[in-house]
Design brief:
This protein has 3 domains: 101 residues, Winged helix-like DNA-binding domain superfamily/Winged helix DNA-binding domain (Arc Repressor Mutant, subunit A); 96 residues, D-Maltodextrin-Binding Protein, domain 2 (3-Layer(aba) Sandwich), CATH 3.40.190; 102 residues, D-Maltodextrin-Binding Protein, domain 2. Strand 3, helix 7 and strand 4 form a beta-alpha-beta unit. Helix 3 packs across helix 6. The protein starts with a helix and ends in a 20-residue tail after the last helix. It contains 13 helices and 11 strands. With 346 residues, the chain is of the alpha/beta class. 39% of the residues lie in helices and 18% in strands.
Length: 346
């Protein structure tokens, strides 16, 4: 157990209180994460540590600095005026730490094979276009990409999945949240119109992706309780690429990730609600993370799903029509360019 002096708490002696314990970088990094997330709960999920541990480390940091950094409110936490200058410095320290890590590894060649497993939809439509740039940055890497539904026993270095891993041997980090929203093609709307309510939707045709039959079935039963699929569902399929093309070519109304609009999908949102959130999880073995090439892939994966850059992965739902107003990054690759004729509008 640490004494008050070790913990940096005031000892009552004016000379001793001026020699507070220097704060460690990990506590500063967690302060930065809590401030960015706006709550201890969100920061705990993102860093995969307990809320109690986060709170204790922030309290220790405040003791060490002799300052109150965060204040609790009903909606979360806010940074105090005294903490704002330190928040800026913490962000600068984070940037410097990344630069330091990169500089220290320059003498180490990043080469070999890395294995990345990801669900088919995220892999095809989101990961691959960005993974090309990652491989160009490390041209001696061979990236072994497996797009499939994932279980804990899959042989891989890094996994991106929609269910939290259950194996206690794996490190799991929640990357963000994918929001599934109903979309339709212009050709379908021109022929059948577009529903504006749930009641109108029941008079249309829908398409379903049944790769995860349990989750898809639960969602269908939730939205359409007691409605038989025959005569209402026009098509089911087991992969995201076929599901997208079924919607884009006018087979019916179907659910897609909201980021479909950001990457150039030729579909329109259907404003009838029925949004389904899916948490996105990163999983890897802690020992594998010590291998430089795997560490690079883990860090890149976290950046590829960072909601501060890509708002469609934030916890809060943002309507597809509003997404690009929130996006401040470079133009995204249009995965569908060259595959659609000009007769199909966005």
């Amino acid at each position: 157990m640490q004494s008050n002096r070790q913990r940096g708490a005031p000892s009552g002696n004016r000379g001793e209180s001026s020699r507070r314990t220097s704060p460690d970088w990990e506590s500063i990094r967690w302060f930065l994460e809590v401030a960015r997330c706006g709550s201890f709960r969100a920061a705990a999920e993102r860093t995969n540590v307990s809320i109690n541990l986060l709170r204790r480390r922030i309290m220790d940091l405040e003791h060490a600095l002799g300052l109150k950094l965060l204040t609790r409110q009903v909606t979360g936490v806010t940074v105090t005026p005294e903490g704002q200058p330190l928040l800026t410095i913490a962000a600068q320290m984070e940037t410097a730490s990344f630069s330091f890590a990169k500089a220290s590894d320059r003498s180490k060649p990043i080469e070999g094979r890395v294995r990345l497993t990801v669900t088919e939809g995220l892999g095809t439509f989101w990961v691959v276009p960005r993974l090309v740039e990652f491989q160009r940055a490390y041209p001696k890497l061979l990236i072994d990409l497996n797009c499939a539904m994932i279980s804990d026993d899959v042989e891989t270095d890094v996994a991106i999945q929609l269910e939290r891993p259950t194996s206690p041997d794996l490190k799991s980090v929640r990357l963000g949240r994918m929001h599934i929203f109903p979309f339709v093609s212009r050709s379908y709307v021109d022929t059948y119109g577009c529903p504006t309510s749930h009641e109108e939707l029941l008079r249309h045709r829908i398409v379903l992706q049944m790769a995860d039959r349990t989750r898809a079935g639960e969602c269908y039963d939730q939205v359409f309780p007691g409605v038989p699929q025959l005569g209402f569902v026009s098509m089911t399929n087991n992969v995201s690429s076929a599901h997208y093309w079924a919607i884009a070519k006018g087979a019916g109304i179907g659910w897609l990730p909201t980021y479909a609009m950001a990457i150039g999908a030729r579909v329109m949102p259907v404003n009838i609600g029925h949004v389904f959130p899916y948490d996105i999880w990163l999983a890897y073995h802690p020992d594998a993370a010590q291998i430089p090439r795997v560490r690079r892939l883990i860090d890149w994966t976290a950046e590829a799903f960072d909601a501060r850059t890509f708002p469609w992965f934030s916890d809060e739902f943002i309507h597809p029509d509003e997404l690009m107003k929130s996006y401040k990054g470079a133009p995204l690759a249009n995965l569908f360019e060259g595959f659609l004729d000009s007769g199909i509008a966005r």
